[in-house]
Write a structure and sequence with these properties.
Elements lengths: L3 H6 L20 H7 L4 H5 L2 H15 L4 E2 L16 E3 L3 E3 L7 H5 L6 H18 L4 E6 L1 H10 L7 H9 L1 H25 L3 E6 L7 H19 L6 E5 L6 H4 L6 E3 L6 H6 L5 E3 L11 H15 L5 E2 L12 H20 L2
Parallel strand pairs: 1-4, 4-5, 5-6, 6-7, 7-8, 8-9
Antiparallel strand pairs: 2-3
Helix pairs in contact: 4-6, 6-9, 7-9, 8-9, 9-10, 13-14
Length: 344
């Protein structure tokens, strides 16, 4: 197996900088669009063989160094008794949001085998068939709470922030419950064969450092401490969170993912002893490849050939991205970092 990715996550020297992309399995690939003609997202995740196939599509086409499982941040929520439907152009929608202490108390106990059994089986299939490490993932508690309280994706998480202000006990109870669920969910993924796991905190950038440290970080620390005994790399990724990086350095993850709004070299100085992942602006891939190559080169320069850098985008692959450009980017990073690795 190509273990380049795992070596980088552990800050060990490697032959080249590893590359994978968030949302690499998805709408940018024509083979995925062909699958979607006969199956929706939830149906794919409920079919182990199909989920494994979609997960491996970008590995074969793009030559990436990691296979992140195909699922959605909201995938574990039905296992808590929450109905989730997927609306084209909108994403996951929850018609009965969780907004009171009684709503939180009414959430079901999460059983990974019962709730996401096919996904766990798919992890085993990818582990057996794939040439690269398997990454599991979950939404971080704050971001999951945003979907539960808002009922859908929200750029400002306004209802959730209002809940924090007006009903702090409800907010705390919800994050405690989601922390328990996420620990169980990620443990099950690792036991099924995942070799690293990533927490997506997509909406945490709406908070300032004070609220993050007081109301969110304690839950993350507990979550990551309860995963520590699994001995797999843990990655914490957020967007719009440049002001939180110093706090995230102490959350307990071994790797911090960076969005495209920060300079990788400057951000890494705030994360001593940790690996970093990122952070090309995904919109660059909608334009000429010269611009992609220029910024990728700058990111590699900021990394400076130090062990512990995984090349990724600063967020997910955009649907209209040309897969051929993604493949060119993978090859470019491998080639340029391999030259750097042997440079005296």
């Amino acid at each position: 197996m190509n273990d380049r990715l795992l070596r980088a996550y552990r800050r060990e020297p490697g032959d080249a900088t590893p590359v994978w992309f968030m949302r690499q399995a998805g709408r940018a690939l024509p083979e995925y669009r062909a699958v979607r003609e006969r199956a929706g997202l939830a149906e794919i995740v409920r079919d182990a063989a199909l989920c494994a196939e979609v997960t491996l599509q970008p590995v074969r086409r793009l030559g990436v160094d990691g296979a992140i499982m195909f699922a959605d941040i909201t995938t574990p929520l039905p296992g808590m008794g929450v109905d989730v439907r997927f609306v084209e152009g909108v994403g996951p929608v929850i018609d009965r949001p969780v907004r009171t202490l009684a709503d939180v108390a009414g959430l079901r106990t999460f059983d990974p085998g019962e709730a996401v059994g096919p996904l766990l089986d798919a992890i085993g299939l990818v582990r057996g068939e794939g040439p690269v490490p398997v990454l599991g993932f979950a939404g971080a508690p704050f971001t999951l709470a945003s979907y539960l309280v808002e009922g859908r994706s929200s750029r400002d998480a306004g209802r959730l922030v209002a809940l924090l202000r007006t009903e702090p006990a409800t907010f705390r109870a919800l994050l405690e419950r989601l922390t328990d669920v996420t620990v169980a969910y990620l443990r099950a993924q690792v036991h099924a064969g995942a070799q690293a796991v990533q927490l997506f905190d997509s909406w945490v950038g709406v908070l300032g450092p004070f609220d993050y440290e007081r109301h969110v970080l304690p839950h993350l620390r507990r979550l990551l401490s309860e995963l520590a005994g699994l001995d797999v790399p843990t990655i914490l990724f957020g967007t719009g969170n440049a002001g939180l990086l110093r706090l995230q350095a102490g959350a307990g993850a071994g790797v911090v993912g960076l969005d495209w709004r920060v300079d990788l070299g400057e951000a890494w100085q705030l994360l001593p002893g940790l690996a970093v992942q990122g952070n090309l602006d995904p919109s660059l891939l909608l334009g000429p490849f010269d611009g992609v190559a220029e910024q990728a080169g700058q990111i590699l320069e900021r990394a400076g050939g130090r062990p512990g850098h995984v090349f990724n985008l600063g967020h997910g692959v955009l649907p209209s991205t040309d897969p051929d450009d993604l493949r060119r980017l993978v090859d470019l990073v491998h080639e340029r970092s391999a030259v750097r690795a042997v440079r005296p």
